[in-house]
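pasting input
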Amino acid sequence: AQSVSQHNHHVILSEAASLELGCNYSYGGTVNLFWYVQYPGQHLQLLLKYFSGDPLVKGIKGFEAEFIKSKFSFNLRKPSVQWSDTAEYFCAVTGQAGTALIFGKGTTLSVSS
Amino acid sequence: EAGVAQSPRYKIIEKRQSVAFWCNPISGHATLYWYQQILGQGPKLLIQFQNNGVVDDSQLPKDRFSAERLKGVDSTLKIQPAKLEDSAVYLCASSLQNTGELFFGEGSRLTVL
């Protein structure tokens, strides 16, 4: 069955610390990969996406993610987090046939100033 | 550009009562999704529409949940009768092309007592 696994449920960091959130997926065939973010009191929004090409993709606010096909992973990274990065982060996958997104359970990131 | 509109934002009902949620997608977006997000979990797809046709409703509990998108624009999700385990946030999303880039509404939070 198709699934997405996020390794960390809750991550607590101090400002300027580096961030890496793990994401592994189980999905047959070619995939599109996404990270969505939900800031407190706001709706879910797209952070970054991978369709094809360069496996290192850059998103908004200094975030990046690396697709490693052999490991079925799409980890999210940021070199230096800010207090404003406090949010819930969701990894998601869909097949290129137009099937709907499958989400992971999410990781709550708390950044202290 | 107006975003995805949902109403009501909050609803409290007793078990066995009925409830309906409304969603108006971004203008021109042919694909509309309803997701259920239970506390501590990622969004789970309930139903996907392409224009006014159903693409995927495999995870919709059809004995109590129904959804329609009669004119291919706005959509209604109904629960009748509600159970305690239906307490969740119901998210509506739309997309221009079915690639996984979704635009989400603020969600409708349902509490069933």
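fyi The first strand of chain B starts at residue 5 and ends at 7.
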